[in-house]
Design goal:
The chain has 256 residues and is an alpha+beta fold. It contains 11 helices and 11 strands. It folds into 2 domains: 3-56; 63-253, no CATH class. Helices cover 38% and strands 18% of the residues.
Length: 256
């Protein structure tokens, strides 16, 4: 291997942490041609995990290492959301948090690369693409291994839970999660409520926060939040909550 090729390899190994995916297109943009990538693979510095994706040879890369690549190299908004995001931030420890499932959210119209979708990450990864919240707000960074990943902050994460409810997320469990969120920042909640375009999510969020008697509720200006008009039945048969014009399960309303 020539000195120049070796120098570029050393630079790549020293600037990029282990545990992540390296996207072939990003490598090309940064001066690592497809031919050079092939040489690195032949020399067993890197190995392919699918079309357009490499990892260090023998490296253990989990789905968060794949997400890091999508966020930092492909500029996608895909991120852990809902209960997964709460679990990664220690906000779901009192519930059964299964490491076998990962719920991701991304913007509608984004294309998750095939290498990510086809890869066996040893967890059941589900990705919901929606514009019910803008892609750029309500995110925070967590450190995982030697790199960082953007995930939904607790306020956005609980809204994502409610977006999935009741079909893919239990409303009772969502309320248990909401009960633990007694230190949300009112300014962050206010902004999310103002830009959220799902009436169901906003009404459920306020109903549950109200029911949990969270102190931060008193600092919200609901006159700036569009809660839509008319009644909304979250479930077919249940209890009607006049204040928020929603019908919720009897078991939820009766929870202490």
């Amino acid at each position: 291997m020539s000195a120049d090729i070796s120098s570029k390899l050393n630079r790549l190994l020293s600037t990029q942490p282990s545990g992540i995916v390296l996207c072939s297109s990003w490598l090309v943009e940064n001066g690592y041609s497809l031919d050079l990538q092939q040489r690195y693979k032949k020399s067993q510095w890197f190995e392919s995990i699918g079309a357009g994706a490499l990892i260090r040879y023998g490296d253990h890369v989990d789905y968060l290492g794949g997400l890091h690549a999508m966020q930092t190299q492909l500029d996608l908004s895909v991120h852990p959301g809902g209960k997964t995001a709460l679990g990664l931030q220690g906000k779901a420890h009192y519930l059964e948090f299964s490491a076998k499932h990962a719920q991701l959210f991304g913007a509608q119209g984004e294309h998750v690369p095939l290498w990510f979708k086809k890869r066996d990450w040893s967890v059941d990864v589900k990705c919901t693409l929606s514009n019910f919240l803008p892609a750029e707000i309500g995110l925070t960074e967590i450190t995982h291994k030697q790199f960082t990943v953007k995930v939904s902050d607790p306020a956005r994460a609980i809204m994502e839970c409610l977006y999935l409810a009741p079909k893919s997320q239990s409303l009772l469990e969502a309320y248990e999660l909401m009960e633990g969120l007694n230190n949300l920042r009112p300014a962050s909640v206010q902004k999310l409520l103002e830009v959220c375009n799902s009436v169901k999510v906003k009404r459920l969020f306020l109903y549950m926060a109200d029911k949990a008697n969270h102190a931060w509720m008193q600092y919200l200006d609901l006159s700036r939040v569009n809660l839509g008009t008319g009644k909304r039945a979250i479930v077919a048969s249940g209890v009607y909550i006049a204040k928020y014009q929603i019908t919720v399960p009897k078991e939820l309303e009766s929870m202490e």
